[in-house]
Amino acid sequence: LKNTMNRNLICGSSVVLTLQLISDGGVVYAEALWDHVTMDDQELGFKAGDVIEVVDATNKEWWWGRIMDSEGWFPASFVRLRVNQDEPMEEYLARLEEAQAGEKDRAGLDLLLGPGLPCKEQMRTNVINEIMSTERDYIKHLKDICEGYIKQCRKRTDMFTEEQLRTIFGNIEEIYRFQRKFLKVLEKKFNKEHPHISEIGCCFLEHQTDFQIYSEYCNNHPNACVQLSKLMKVNKYVFFFEACRLLQKMIDISLDGFLLTPVQKICKYPLQLAELLKYTNPQHRDYRDVEAALNAMKNVARLINERKRRLENIDKIAQWQSTIEDWEGEDVLSRSSELIFSGELTKLSQPQAKSQQRMFFLFDHQMVYCKKDLLRRDMLYYKGRMDMDHMEVIDVEDGKEKDFNVSVKNALKLRSLTGDKVHLLCAKKPEQKERWLRAFTDERRQVQHDLETGFSLTEVQKKQAMLNACKSHPAGKPKVVTRSYYDFLLRQKHPSLPTALPQQQVFMLAEPKRKTSTFWHNIGRLTPFKK
């Protein structure tokens, strides 16, 4: 069943398989590949690794599932069907441990185990063999893509530019080179005679940083799908790609199916290592390395997911900036890629110490503040920004503030490290102040994390995001009022199916209709100077 599921997943027919299992009256479980964070009460939130009971899979993109007492929609692309749906291994191992611990029912235990290896060692053998087998199959897939498609495409300069090929195939050639090297390392550690003795955990640990090259591929994959979809509308490209497949004697999977394989593979490593750890005795020499390898590959998957989310967010940030009136200076994306927190604060700055209500948006490296329009409260005017790399955050006690010589409550200060500039910010409530203090800590932590992991935006990514934002507001047409980036809380009132894919939606709402204002009518009626 496990092998059948894997083949069906690759072929893109997991929905059909799931529907079949459900219709047969079986309970179908899926394992979460990614965290699904939602603030919609009709969606089901979960963490990577959680097990979800699939209740309804009739929709291709969104399934209805259950975790304990919670039910809701979740994206089908965020999960995979659980390995060994009907294998009662937990009960089996529980019986085995009971028998071993009490030395009872030895005859029954021998009958249960049968000839050959003890159960746990046999299961470890199966998992090791699966890892080696799928790794060899994966290398063949990569070879077919590189030699069967890319090599042939490069010969046809009349059909493809190098830029197009880079968009479609990403850095898959780099992945192919790395995976060949990784397979050789695995082969050296693989014990053909006694696979359960194999110590392969160290292979993943030694190359954990090398797996980060998948980040670039996963981030590019949506662009690859778009580019490929455009080409496949032209018959000559359809015929060309099919000829490439037949010439290379590849299995009957379309090119977009092959290109999905690396995305699936990097998600599968933590799942395989989790299975391996489950069937590895703590006394086994490989136990500690497998345990560490599992955590390492989870971190790789988490890092890739985080980078993908960050890159998807830059379009939202660019869109947000395009709605701000009177913008001055460089774009937010020139230095930042993440909105940490936002909210309204009272601002006092020296030397005037004049009180001003402002909306603050804390990004990594900088904080932008804006003024609300007096009549149209949804419109913001740019008023300035602060360089958080050169700012010190100071908690201020309630009472007299000596620098500004005013009485304050729920206040904090931002002091420039390179000058004498000081900003006093006051929140309305103590809990709001505490939330801001945590946000400033989170901002510094995010900057440090990006530094350690080497995350940064390319100039091309920044320019493309700003270009996309400009296209959404054509010249001569009124701007669409866009919901601020900090407030993506579009709650549904009934359990209808989500209308868009997760992490790919920029929420744009038309300005709500308002009652006709009586402001000017009343002013006109009250004025004493009537003709």
Automatic annotation (TrEMBL):
<feature type="domain" description="SH3">
    <location>
        <begin position="25"/>
        <end position="84"/>
    </location>
</feature>
<dbReference type="GO" id="GO:0005085">
    <property type="term" value="F:guanyl-nucleotide exchange factor activity"/>
</dbReference>
<dbReference type="InterPro" id="IPR001452">
    <property type="entry name" value="SH3_domain"/>
</dbReference>
<dbReference type="GO" id="GO:0035556">
    <property type="term" value="P:intracellular signal transduction"/>
</dbReference>
<dbReference type="Pfam" id="PF00621">
    <property type="entry name" value="RhoGEF"/>
</dbReference>
<dbReference type="InterPro" id="IPR001331">
    <property type="entry name" value="GDS_CDC24_CS"/>
</dbReference>
<dbReference type="InterPro" id="IPR001849">
    <property type="entry name" value="PH_domain"/>
</dbReference>
<feature type="domain" description="PH">
    <location>
        <begin position="338"/>
        <end position="445"/>
    </location>
</feature>
<keyword id="KW-0728">SH3 domain</keyword>
<dbReference type="Pfam" id="PF22697">
    <property type="entry name" value="SOS1_NGEF_PH"/>
</dbReference>
<keyword id="KW-0963">Cytoplasm</keyword>
<keyword id="KW-0344">Guanine-nucleotide releasing factor</keyword>
<dbReference type="InterPro" id="IPR035899">
    <property type="entry name" value="DBL_dom_sf"/>
</dbReference>
<dbReference type="Pfam" id="PF00018">
    <property type="entry name" value="SH3_1"/>
</dbReference>
<feature type="domain" description="DH">
    <location>
        <begin position="123"/>
        <end position="307"/>
    </location>
</feature>
<dbReference type="InterPro" id="IPR011993">
    <property type="entry name" value="PH-like_dom_sf"/>
</dbReference>
<dbReference type="GO" id="GO:0005737">
    <property type="term" value="C:cytoplasm"/>
</dbReference>
<dbReference type="InterPro" id="IPR036028">
    <property type="entry name" value="SH3-like_dom_sf"/>
</dbReference>
<dbReference type="InterPro" id="IPR000219">
    <property type="entry name" value="DH_dom"/>
</dbReference>
<protein>
    <submittedName>
        <fullName>Rho guanine nucleotide exchange factor (GEF) 4</fullName>
    </submittedName>
</protein>
<dbReference type="InterPro" id="IPR055251">
    <property type="entry name" value="SOS1_NGEF_PH"/>
</dbReference>
